[in-house]
Amino acid sequence: MKNRTAPIELLAESDGTVVSDPLVSVCMTTYNQAPYLAQAIEGVLAQRTSFDVELVLSDDCSTDGTAELCAAYAAQYPTVIRLVTGPVNVGWRANYRRTFEACRGTYVAYCDGDDYWSDPFKLQKQVDLLETDAACGMCYTRSERVVEATGQRWSYPQRESFCDFDSLLFNNTVENCTAVARRELIGRYYAEVRPEEHPQWLTDDAPMWIWFSRFSRIRALDCVTAVHRLLPQSVSQSGAVERRIAFCDSLADISLWFDHRYGKNRHARALHRRRMEVALWVLSRDGSTAEYLSRWWRDVRRTPCLLFDAAGYGLLVKSWLRKLSSKRRRQ
Length: 331
What we know:
The structure is a single chain. The protein is an alpha/beta fold and 331 residues long. It folds into 2 domains: 24-230, Spore Coat Polysaccharide Biosynthesis Protein SpsA, Chain A; 241-320, no CATH class. Helices cover 45% and strands 17% of the residues. The chain has helices at residues 34-45, 66-76, 92-102, 122-132, 165-170, 183-193, 205-215, 241-262, 268-286, 289-302, 310-330, and strands at residues 24-30, 53-59, 81-84, 107-110, 116-117, 136-147, 153-156, 180-182, 217-230. Strands 1, 2, 3, 4, 5, 6, 7, 8 and 9 form a 9-stranded mixed sheet that branches. The N and C termini lie far apart (62 Å).
């Protein structure tokens, strides 16, 4: 922001004052994230830019003090933070949508309430790129992933990023907390894909970026600007095997849907194979042999060609050898 002590002017507020539009809206949704939310908000307030920024903060009826924290920050920074909430919990997908709808900037940056920005020039770098490349619909950077339970850290993605449609079908390298996108394109995504009609999709950012890669250019900056926390009970990092597999299956279903609609099923066989192999890898480490074989047979019945996939047999053998080795060490 231009200066944290000089409040940003926004559109007409409740008192009727007419002021200018922010160039960037930060879309931040939160639910029961009181231990982390202040750091997320402070990362936005610390941004140093040559343009105006607003933070659209949406709490979905939290019960742990998050709502009070949101209200306190909104009261302290009334010309920067706009609070979105409602009388009942609407769920993560509807909360994302209503927060986006409240954004007024030409560009929308995302940061969930349990992540935070570590670079005060993040928005300036990304908007500079977007302003000079009209064909670029979204820009993202590297992040630092942190396992909250252990403190383990690493840069993500660890290798060079490939942002084309075919690559993103197999590996989403876009961390949501690093993305800045054109608002007009996000609106088109919602209108065309209608993610609310796909309740089996357990994330809303992965399909958005795959769609973006089909209709615009995506560019990556080789710098770390944000921290993504890996929490033990999040939808993607759950300790429960069934939940982890369900999330991985959801990502595969998203890719299969986009490959069917926009890719003429060019990658269907490879995506089905990847779907099975990811699930079997998890079960080979954390599941029983019965669970492994049940999942393998389910996938083979759905896609018979997977009967000849060597990974299905190899992972099972590795699982047996791992368990045998563990048993010998205990003896």
